[in-house]
């Protein structure tokens, strides 16, 4: 498809005098200034028909790329933020690194910079937006609902990652945590485990990710007629917490035949406690977890884990964010990405011989 690059008589009459701006191009082409900037940057997010129409106006008006860059700087920061409420720790926050990696890769392909802001709260976020330092943001799952509400009220382009936003009308991308936990629990049940203990990283009434994982676990128990077998121990997401919870669990009578760690940090601590107790995985006790970063293949034995596609979550979230930034009337989008169970060496049939 091609477009007539000759301006109509009316367009010729309306042709701006003096220096041409992106607003002039947008007005003549019938698009937003964000769309003009995407065309200038060569973004693949613009439909071909729209690209040709905008390019035709650019050619007719003599709009130069250096002028586009100047106009873009005045109207847009060319920067997206990643808002996190705490310092990112290299070992414990593998998934946040995957989100950041996906965001950086996708944003740079669109000519955008990335600003990482930790310890974010409503006041500091308001400064970022009001000062024009960011055009939009990827928002961490631990950001509280008060800040999400502020973002929605101010119509700031943003995408929440890792969980849904409840009734707050913003975009979000998450994994199917419920189904993942259901799959892992069902796998252990099929191996004959009836004495399973969940090791959780926090309060399910506060953290929606924990809530969905616990609900998936309960649903699998219900389907197997094992409602009375529910057993949960509460700690936090750290290696040390997993270690301490497992040490306590191993003193119980009867001892659990399987430990279901709600994240891999907990699972690594669990493996240490089991090893120190002189027990073997999975001969004496099985261990399963949720997340499935590369870490699970570098411990012994390799961990059976539910794969949570956080890089893909980050990629989808960035795609949505760019669309929101360029849209004149952005509509919140929601996506749930599938999870799957990766069976490895840490799970096996329920032990009977060495269980006290």
Automatic annotation (TrEMBL):
UniProt domain HTH lacI-type: residue ranges: 20-74
GO MF annotation: an example: transcription cis-regulatory region binding
SMART domains: HTH_LACI (SM00354)
Region annotated Disordered, chain positions: 1-24
Keywords: DNA-binding, Transcription, Transcription regulation
Pfam families reported for this sequence: LacI, Peripla_BP_3
Name the record gives this protein: LacI family transcriptional regulator
Highest classification ranks of the organism: Bacteria, Bacillati, Chloroflexota, Ktedonobacteria, Ktedonobacterales
